[in-house]
Specification:
Layout lengths: L2 H19 L2 H4 L12 H7 L4 E5 L2 E2 L3 E2 L6 H11 L3 E5 L9 H10 L4 E4 L5 H9 L4 E5 L5 H13 L3 E6 L2 H7 L6 E5 L11 H7 L7 E5 L5 H7 L4 E6 L1 H4 L4 H11 L1
Parallel strand pairs: 1-4, 1-10, 4-5, 5-6, 6-7, 7-8, 8-9, 9-10
Antiparallel strand pairs: 2-3
Helix pairs in contact: 4-5, 4-12
GO molecular function, one term: phosphoribosylanthranilate isomerase activity
Family: Belongs to the TrpC family.
Pathway: Amino-acid biosynthesis; L-tryptophan biosynthesis; L-tryptophan from chorismate: step 4/5
């Protein structure tokens, strides 16, 4: 069993447990349920940099990246740097994140927040909304076409945007539907952790222009972004590159100002 299969198995168990403790009706009483969400796709279309900065403590491939900052310090630094949006990892077991991180991020900044999670159930989308997210991530590698359709429709009904992550032609072909706002190409193979910008380049022409194109993972230089922009990419998700420094916000300032 590869790491992705393991994560999904654990995630399904986790959702069952959470549902037994916190009913949907409780999530729906959150102050964020009535809040107008902020559009990341719109911000990316209007931006020159297109940076989506990520709050990420650790990962299965790198173990600990950084545990020294508070969420508030990181996300405020990203907002001040001019990031278009912030991705907040909420998986606990493999990435050291939590829904509290999302809540603290929402309390600290006023730019779009992505709940970066392995979503397998509508319940997690309700959690995202209840904790202040503006958009969710769906991963094509772990969902069927019908699941992508029902989960993306449900997200839209709550006013959330949807970023769909693909890794190859097959995933892209099964996933294209009008309920998506952005299509992200992950440059990291989630099964082997091999990273290559070629994944983004090869798939770019296959992504219809109705969707904002986002390149994710393995982007660590200005050159990489300049290389990808001619392929139509408007968004660039960067986490590790900022988080591994002594000051993630300052690293983002330096990076974006160079762009």
């Amino acid at each position: 069993m590869n790491i992705l299969d393991k994560i999904i198995l654990d995630k399904k168990r986790e959702v069952i447990l959470k549902k037994s403790i916190i009913p949907v009706s409780q999530l729906e009483t959150s102050v964020f349920f009535g809040k107008q969400t902020i559009s990341l796709s719109q911000k990316l279309k209007e931006s020159n940099s297109g940076i989506i900065a990520e709050h990420k403590r650790r990962s299965p491939s790198k173990s600990i990246i950084n545990n020294n900052f508070t969420v508030e310090e990181v996300v405020k630094g990203y907002e001040n740097a001019g990031a278009c949006g912030i991705s907040v990892l909420t998986d606990g077991k493999y990435f050291g994140g939590s829904l509290d991180d999302l809540l603290l991020a929402r309390a600290s900044v006023n730019i779009p927040l992505l709940r970066k999670e392995f979503i397998v159930d509508e319940y997690q989308i309700l959690e995202a909304k209840a904790h202040g997210a503006d958009l969710i991530l769906l991963i094509a590698a772990v969902l069927t076409r019908d699941e992508i359709k029902s989960l993306s429709e449900f997200a839209k009904s709550l006013g959330l945007e949807v970023l769909l992550e693909v890794h190859n032609q097959e995933e892209l072909e099964k996933s294209i539907m009008p309920t998506l706002d952005m299509i992200g190409v992950n440059n990291r193979n989630l099964k082997t952790f091999e990273v290559s910008l070629d994944f983004s380049k090869e798939l770019a022409s296959q992504i219809p222009n109705d969707f904002v194109k986002v390149s994710e993972s393995g982007i660590s230089s200005i050159e990489a972004i300049q290389e990808l922009k001619p392929y139509g990419y408007k968004g660039f998700l960067i986490g590790e590159n900022f988080m591994k420094t002594d000051n993630a916000g300052q690293a983002a300032v330096d990076f974006i100002s160079q762009l």
